[in-house]
């Protein structure tokens, strides 16, 4: 439990760093979870919500549904006060309450084929405009390698095109393969639960 608490505090520290990147206190903070399901997704959101309750108590918190898909389609939910008051529920919940998807904003053909953008539109531009429309100051993306590469692509696009917005990519994967992160979110739980499973495996040869 102590190690779990330290991991959640480390997740929460990302919110403090994000606030320092803003010249003024953020008013609207968004979250999305992407890629495969992992045990740390909901608890990561819970840790961030808990930190922002102290760092930016008046900020509006929203979640884009099904990762980058929801960002492209403008599908989101606002976190009500009872969620902010009961973050322990999020920390105990597996998977993601926001839903996941596998979408790369740089894969234009796939985004068009799946109906996330129209022919001729640039997914990065669509995502940037949605963030601007929603008046997002900080976007937290929680996911694995592809999610963080896409977050980096989005952050560069925003910077190159004059959008004043901070993107914080958070490494989540049970595979523990996001370089140069030593231990990704979710990897410890996967290893721990796998060890429990194999500890109880019985091999009978008769």
From TrEMBL:
Phosphofructokinase domain mapped to chain residues: 29-193
One GO BP: fructose 6-phosphate metabolic process
Superkingdom as given in the UniProt entry: Eukaryota
Gene Ontology MF: a single term: metal ion binding
Cofactor(s) the protein needs: Mg(2+)
UniProt key word Lipid metabolism: no
Transmembrane segments annotated in the record for this chain: none
Assigned keywords, A-Z: Kinase, Magnesium, Metal-binding, Transferase
Protein name listed in UniProt: Phosphofructokinase domain-containing protein
């Amino acid at each position: 439990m102590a190690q779990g608490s330290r991991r959640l505090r480390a997740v929460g520290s990302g919110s403090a760093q994000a606030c320092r990147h803003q010249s003024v206190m953020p008013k609207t903070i968004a979250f999305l979870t992407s890629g495969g399901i992992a045990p740390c997704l909901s608890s990561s959101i819970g840790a961030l919500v808990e930190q922002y309750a102290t760092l930016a108590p008046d900020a509006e918190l929203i979640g884009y549904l099904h990762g980058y898909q929801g960002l492209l389609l403008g599908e989101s939910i606002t976190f009500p006060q009872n969620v902010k008051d009961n973050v322990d529920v999020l920390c105990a919940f597996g998977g993601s309450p926001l839903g996941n998807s596998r979408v790369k904003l740089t894969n234009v053909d796939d985004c068009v084929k799946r109906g996330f953008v129209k022919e001729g539109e640039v997914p990065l531009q669509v995502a940037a405009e949605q963030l601007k429309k929603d008046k997002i100051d900080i976007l937290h993306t929680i996911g694995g390698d592809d999610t963080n590469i896409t977050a980096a692509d989005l952050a560069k696009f925003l910077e190159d095109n004059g959008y004043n917005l901070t993107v914080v990519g958070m490494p989540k994967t049970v595979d523990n393969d996001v370089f140069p992160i030593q231990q990704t979110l979710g990897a410890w739980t996967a290893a721990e639960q796998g060890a429990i499973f194999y500890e109880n495996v019985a091999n009978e040869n008769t």
